[in-house]
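Key idea: predict the complex, not the pieces.
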Amino acid sequence: MMNRRSFVKKVLNGTIAGSLYLVWPLGGDSLEIPEQIPGIRGKPYDILDQEFAFIVDITRCIGCGSCCVADKREYNVPDGNYRTWVERYVKGFSDEIYVDCPNGGLDGYQHPRKDIEEKTRDTFFVPKLCNMCREAPCVQVCPVGATFKSPDGFVLMDEKRCVGCAYCIQACPYSARFLHPVAKVAQKCTWCYHRVRKGLLPACVQVCPTSARKFGSMKDESSEIYEILKGPGVLTVLKKEMGTFPALYYKGARREVI
Amino acid sequence: MNLSYQLRLLIVLISIGVLAGGGLLLKRVLTPESFGVYGPYRADAIAEAALVPIRHGNNTSCFKCHSYETKVHKNGRHQTISCEFCHGTYADHIANEKKIGTLPVKKGKEITTLCLRCHNTEIKARSEEVIKTVAMPNHLTDQNVKLTHDCNQCHHVHAPLKYIIRAKQITGLMEARL
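Result:
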């Protein structure tokens, strides 16, 4: 028997799959890339039965800024705005924290900071992006339903509905959103939803030379993400006390990282 | 005007009907299609988000045509580096399986700048386990080369140890692989 839920599921899978098939022959190049997230291509995408996670390994990040460059190029992000960025943390012996992020890390980090007078105790890079909160504050505040949590766990933007009020930009505890200077709509990191739906890794994950960024499906029990999340290693989320329950986890993040 | 009770009741009912119908019609016109399928948003926006054009390929996309670079890149220490990071995106190069543009190749000092984005010892946040770093210009003086040298004069950019290993094999510092 077909109940309401399965009916809606079927219809929507149909429309989405249908629209994808219409467009794929045009963007045929994308099909030449071997599948990077197993289990997505070649079968209907069950949007109600998906779970993805992102892990940033701070101990492996070298601050090269490949991810920032890839992200800017993938979306033609306007100058001065960043969907993802890499911050440099320096901790002095007095426990003072110094954070900087020149041009979002787009130019890499060529020089050490000269303005810190005390001796450095610890220093590391922290890549930041959308946390894909399970309880997303940005979704809660949108007055027109232009930002939403899709059933497969992505916080996405409906740019056709967005009126550019910027409530979501203020609401995001991670400052992951910005107002597009020309289109005047809010934009944000989507974990490259368009790539994921075609079985490809997000652009930043793909270009990371040290695999400090990892992405994968939690439904695939052989994925690296699943292994790490189920294992005993310490993973943290940013601003846990905000109750946003991010799907973005950090490995090796010091408690000073916010 | 003195209308009968029935007529007044009819007028009231018709007005309610017209208002409610108009309201429903208005709601229908103003609510975007596919709104509310999963929640208070347009479900079609999910499909739209999935259809954003892909601009980055991956190294396999490049290896299809560039066979020499493939051989060198795949066997070198730089195999994890994305071609597109240094050369630009696949979408700027290929569209519909045809070449539409030439991607830049870095030259001279640009290469040194690019190398030092990752390999600069001065940035202490780089774990030795992850990356080998060098101090500049100390590395040049240690290796007895001119200070004006660019990295790629000794290191093949795609496989940084390619020439170094070969040189060591020729001079007998390292056993040659048969």
